[in-house]
Write a structure and sequence with these properties.
The chain is of the alpha/beta class. It has three domains: about 120 residues, Alpha-helical ferredoxin (Fumarate Reductase Iron-sulfur Protein, Chain B, domain 2, Orthogonal Bundle), CATH 1.10.1060; about 160 residues, 3-Layer(bba) Sandwich (FAD/NAD(P)-binding domain), CATH 3.50.50; about 150 residues, FAD/NAD(P)-binding domain (3-Layer(bba) Sandwich). The chain has 20 helices and 16 strands. Strands 3-2-1-4-16 form a five-stranded parallel sheet. The protein is globular, with a radius of gyration of 24 Å. Bound molecules: flavin-adenine dinucleotide. Flavin-adenine dinucleotide (FAD) binds next to α11, α12, α16, α18 and α19.
């Protein structure tokens, strides 16, 4: 399919919007359904294969307004049901359709603190947009109102206009809260607790705050300046951010409460412990966890082969094991780092892939080769310990397993060798065990996730937790929802 430029999409939207506005009459539901769904302008795949800059360029003002006019303003708002933080979607989309962007962003911000991020990375197609009446009426969920793209447009507009002011802070209470981690769960807690006038100190193990939004999700999907703006807003509210500070090593969690004068703590340390396949050859040179690969590129600029302190391995042929967002991010990063061929190896079919449909589409456009119903059996190396290939097996789908997805079943005797020099394992992450291991009495599940009650409180008084450390590897919006719940509980505790 040939690439449609932003200019072409913008011109068509301008023309269609003008035609609607000139009529001066409210649109009927039938007319709303007839408006062409607005495509997201993107960089040409041939150009973006060699650059880290953002792939999706964002709607123009006319596209945002036109897309918003497709909304039927359903009374029962099924889209809101699908939103983990229950944004009043019909209201903000109505305001966007009327061109009142300030009102639109105001409505979103009542429930979501990071709309520029969520507008980019939320899996809307399985949340708000999955329930959209327009998609159902058109018998194609891909034609649902593009809630996320409109959200992104209004949030970017606010930031670019310099109108995104930090939330106001109530007078100082003298109470002090420690927030461990700086991902979306922790950012939400820090903002909500600081708003009430409590002092907030965030502790981050890495040298840069932002969590996975900074070290995991690549620049070409989520520009770092957006996350930096959110951290700056927290700092402008008076939140202190201490980086290179590992709770459990630099200082124990309990010491913060027992010795350092904190009245409460929130643990939002995420799921940063990569899982491996447990197959032969995983310790060869050229095998990475996706976490390491992405962190070294995103955070340590390891792809800057000339200047980086720890430049990354120059790969020729890369295999990425897995089918989620992390696998797509790793594969698309490898393309940008100059690999000649990048293969995604996934043991189910595309239908079962957990990655966002858009990300799979973008990966294909950028030349990533998909090997479905295949998986690695062992990784093969030479006498120097360098990866030379991967022995793979073919699979077919059997009966559904506990997850409801059809179980992949090995095809006996189907082994074959895939010649590669790099293998990136992207099959999921577990919770970081450091804090549970160094905090006596902190209860965790058998998977190592911290157990909380329905207020977000852990088994230890005054210690709360949320986000991936509680849910297991999940999503930005769910982490934010968890943060909001814990912040409300902390605020109630400190008020008492
Ligand atoms: C590559 C990748 C792509 C993803 N893509 C998407 C996507 O498209 N859409 C989506 O919704 N979600 C996506 N996710 C998942 C999403 O990013 C996470 O669900 C979310 O960031 C979890 O937020 P959190 O606040 O719980 O923790 P995190 O974002 O993981 O942040 C935790 C922070 O705590 C710090 N930390 C850990 N231990 C300590 C300690 N002992 N002391 C101090 N600090 C510590 C870590 O360094 C980190 O900065 C992706 C994840 C990855 C890895």
């Amino acid at each position: 399919m040939s690439h449609v430029t932003r200019e072409t999409l913008a011109a068509a939207a301008k023309r269609d919007l003008e035609a609607i506005l000139q009529r001066g009459k409210p649109l009927t539901p039938k007319e709303r359904l007839a408006i062409v769904p607005q495509e997201m302008p993107t960089q040409d795949p041939q150009v973006r294969r060699r650059t880290m800059s953002e792939v999706a360029l964002g709607y123009t003002a006319e596209q945002s307004r036109l897309e918003s006019l497709r909304c039927l303003q359903c009374r029962n708002a099924p889209c809101v049901e699908g939103c983990p933080v229950r944004i009043d979607i019909p209201a903000f989309v109505k305001a966007a359709g009327e061109g009142d962007i300030q009102a639109a962003i105001g409505i979103i911000k009542r429930n979501s603190l990071l709309p520029s991020v969520c507008g980019r990375v939320c899996p809307q197609e399985t949340q708000c947009q999955e329930n959209c009446t327009v998609g159902k009426a058109l018998k194609d969920t891909a034609k649902a109102v593009a809630v996320g793209r409109i959200e992104r447009f209004v949030a970017d507009w606010e930031r670019e206009q310099g109108k995104a002011l930090p939330p106001s802070v109530k007078p100082e209470t003298g109470r002090k809260v420690a927030v461990i981690g700086t991902g979306p769960a922790s950012i939400t807690v820090a903002a909500d607790v600081r708003r009430e006038g409590h002092q907030v100190v965030m502790f981050e193990a890495f040298h840069k705050p932002g969590g996975v939004m900074v070290y995991g999700i690549p620049e070409f999907r989520l520009p770092k300046r957006i996350v930096e703006a959110e951290i700056s807003a927290l700092q402008a509210m008076g939140v202190e951010v201490r980086t290179n500070f590992v709770i459990g090593r630099t200082r124990k969690l309990r010491d913060l409460l027992d010795k350092d004068g904190f009245d409460a703590a929130f643990v939002g340390t995420g799921a940063g412990l990569p899982k491996f396949m447990g197959i032969e050859g995983e310790n060869l040179v050229g095998v990475f966890s996706a976490n390491e690969y992405l962190t070294r590129v995103n955070l340590m600029k390891a792809h800057d082969f000339e200047r980086a302190d720890t430049p990354i391995f120059r790969s020729r042929v890369v295999a990425v094991l897995g089918g989620g967002n992390v696998a797509m991010d790793a594969a698309r990063t490898a393309v940008r780092l100059g690999a000649e061929a990048v293969h995604i190896v996934y043991r189910r079919t595309e239908k079962e892939m957990p990655a966002r449909i858009e990300e799979v589409g973008h990966a294909k456009e950028e030349g990533v080769i998909f090997h479905l119903l295949e998986n690695a059996k062992r990784i093969v190396g030479d006498e120097q310990g360098l990866v030379t290939g991967m022995e793979c097996l073919r699979y077919e789908l059997g009966e559904p397993d506990a997850s409801g997805r059809r179980r992949p079943v090995e095809v006996k005797g189907s082994e074959f060798i895939m010649p590669v020099d790099t293998v990136i394992v992207a099959i999921g992450n577990d919770s970081n065990p450091l804090i549970p291991r160094t905090t006596g009495g902190l209860q965790v599940t058998k998977w190592g996730n911290i157990i909380v009650d329905d207020t977000g409180k852990t088994s230890i008084d005054r210690i709360y937790a949320g986000g991936d450390i509680v849910l297991g590897a999940a999503t930005v919006i769910l982490a934010m929802g968890e943060g909001r719940r814990a912040a409300a509980s902390i605020n109630a505790l400190l008020k008492g």
